[in-house]
Amino acid sequence: MALEGLPTEEQLLTFAAGGERIVAQGRVAIVLCLLAIPLFQVLYYQKLDADTLTGLGAISIALLLSLTYFVLSRRQDSLRWLPYVTSLSDVTLISAALSVYLVLNKPHMAVNSRVIWDIYLLAIGATAFRPRRGVVVTTTLVAVAQYLTITLYADLHWNLNDPAWAPFYYGVFNWPTQISRVVLMVATGILALAIIREVSQLSHLAGTDSLTAIFNRTYFTLRIKEETERAHRYHHALTLVMVDIDHFKNINDALGHEYGDKALIQVARYLKNGLRSSDILFRYGGDELAILMPETGAQDARSIFKRILDSLQQIARQGRKLTVSAGIAPRPADAIGSESLIQAADKHLYAAKEHGRNCIMPTGQEPALPDAQA
């Protein structure tokens, strides 16, 4: 039995890929490898022709941009637009390098380049690291459109097969060759989409709990660190709620583990339906659930969870009422860092159990924990 409203593909792929920062690191490494190609040609042939010089210039600029994007990838607020900007700038830089040949009156080098055009395939293939299919599709279409524009311009403005161009060091011009290049670009984009689909499925298995279909503890550990860092950076509120089903062991003992599983699924469904879209629900372990509520203070979190707790009063399993206890820990009132925030929420959850269960602690009247710890 599974819940509706599975974690989003973007969230799961961010978990699996390690975020945009790993992508940025990979780009720097790839560009450094590409830089070795023209450098090898210079050392091997002992000469610096126009093709190699243009390749060196393009890759050097790409390296500078890659380092810039790596710095930007550390900013959480840039992750929505950064994948599009970086991917599109990659293919645009390649097209700009080929266009330089047209300006230099070397059209054959633009349409038959043996150094620069291959980088299109790497740039399109690298979009497989992105969590969005839109990045792959957009980048592939832009790359194809730019290259076809360059090719059409060269074919219309020069007689590329005029004997005056002989000897044809970069080969004669023919459209079948150019079309095959475009097909390869599209095929690379399709391959990137297939990789994203496969990673999405694997990420779903790695990041969700198989019983309740909500996020699991592995993803919780990653996400709470990201949320506490974001809250610290932008001085936003953040509240963690730890939830435990009351007398869950008795339910398992009296009715069996199958009924216990169904009770856990039902509670998870009520929690998920009662939370806002910005709140994130996890199975922390056993019958314990965790809720991250970004940009939410303790009072708002308590009000939201109080409504959920009231609705839970309607749940019953084999004549037994299902109730929960909850501990609420706001940042920075109770704690600063992720580990101490978990400890604070657990402490309040334990207090709720000691208080008689089926309640939220603190109630809102008590002072916060005496000393917030990092």
How would you describe this structure to a colleague?
With 374 residues, the protein is of the alpha+beta class. It is 61% helix and 9% strand. It contains 13 helices and 7 strands. It has helices spanning 9-17, 20-45, 50-72, 82-103, 107-111, 118-125, 133-157, 175-207, 217-234, 248-255, 257-274, 298-312, 338-354, and strands at 238-245, 280-285, 288-294, 316-317, 320-321, 324-331, 360-361. A 5-stranded mixed sheet has the order 2-3-1-6-7, sandwiched between helices. Strands 4-5 form a two-stranded antiparallel sheet. Strand 4 (316-317) and strand 5 (320-321) form a beta hairpin. Helix 3 (50-72) packs antiparallel against helix 4 (82-103) and helix 6 runs parallel beside helix 8 (175-207). The radius of gyration is 28 Å and the shape is elongated.
